[in-house]
Design goal:
The chain has a five-stranded antiparallel β-sheet with strand order 1-2-3-4-5, with no helix packed on it. The mean pLDDT is 93. A hairpin with a 7-residue loop joins strand 3 (34-43) and strand 4. It has one domain. The chain has strands at residues 3-11, 21-29, 34-43, 51-61, 64-73. With 74 residues, it is mainly beta. Keywords: Apoplast, Secreted. It comes from Pinus radiata (Monterey pine). It is found in: Secreted, Extracellular space, Apoplast.
């Protein structure tokens, strides 16, 4: 079984959230098509953000994958 620690910084560049970020991290279990990561913070409009992201693998080809993030903030 292969598990990875995934850490993402999502940087927004649209007008309303320009320059704001979200920090997301969690254990990625490649044998699962859907898993949950923690939202552990952010900057700008998302300062002190908390929540979770349900991540779904949309496609997987060799070392490349497309992930879909459905994020809920509290």
């Amino acid at each position: 079984r292969r598990d990875f620690l995934m850490v993402f910084t999502v940087i927004f560049n649209n007008m309303e959230y320009n320059g704001s970020t979200l920090e997301v991290q969690g254990t990625d279990r490649f044998d699962q098509t859907q898993r949950e990561y923690a939202v552990i913070g952010g900057t700008g409009k998302f300062r002190f953000a908390r929540g979770y992201a349900v991540v779904t693998t949309e496609s997987l080809s060799g070392q490349n994958s497309v992930l879909k993030f459905n994020t809920t903030l509290s």
